[in-house]
Amino acid sequence: MEYRFLGKTGTKVSSFALGGSGFGTRTSEAESRLIIDKALDYGINLVDTSNIYGQGESERVIGQAIKHRRGNVLLASKFGAESPEKINQSGGSRRWIRTAVEQSLLRLQTDYIDIYQLHLPLEWMGYEEILLTLNDLVREGKIHHIGTSNHLGGQLVQAQTISDRYHIQRFVSEQTPYSLINRRMEFELAGIAKQYNLSLFVYSPLSGGLLTGKYKPGQPAQSGTRASELKGYMDNLDPELAENEHKFKIIAQLQQLANEAGISLADMATAFTQSHPAVTSTIWGPRTLKQLGAYISGAETRLSTDVLDAIDVIVPPGKRVDDKEQTWTPEWMKPEQRRRHM
Fold it and tell me: Which Pfam families match (predicted)?
């Protein structure tokens, strides 16, 4: 396992991280604990979760699983993506951040969180209150470092500028999707990460299972796969939809390239994320012990320059094949925000 610095903090994180979004829900608690143990034994030291995963169940399962190995684990959790239905129990206010972190600490059975991340941009409020509150929590020792997730480049620059203005803690990491068919990270975030010494934690390297090679265009997804379970809910995964035909043709070209290189498509996809120098860690999100084993078996795969050049021809750098593959839609993209009122 390779270990890389978290920004300029001096803390080292494993080049692969374990994502816990399904622990205790899509994956039973017993199997979740086996997955966590095996990942830590392999050398992973960064475990990522959020207070909304399974309504806190993921944090609880992770906390129970690592409590005897806490000194060797970097815990990352998130806040800010809670349902807004309960007044003052979501978002980024000082009141809620303090409440949210205490709740996460209890579920995780720990005195501190190593990396506490703003899960989504909060467009209705500025970063001042968020950063000042997080700065206080660092000084109190309840969190060690702060980061973001699913942010745009301009938002990260704005946050860094505010931290410099107030001489307070800066975000040291950004968590963003990145895969063979979603290369938007390269267009802007990679440059900003270099400018501000931000670590990039990239998730969904297999694009929700699309890059496993198990889906065939025009054919129904096999029972038990993510695409079959989410049929009608996440249409971007559905191989039967005509609107996805172009994407699956591109995936077929990537599959052919992987075949010629003598590796699986999934291994090529994961290795691709590791080939970019801006990437600090690739987050694995296995739902089963078998899936974790597949990740581990392909972890040492490295791509030659010829293969990387061939990928660039199929999916140009900075391009996202399907614009539906985005975590959130900014308020300013809604019709009422982009049309003049006559």
Answer: Aldo_ket_red
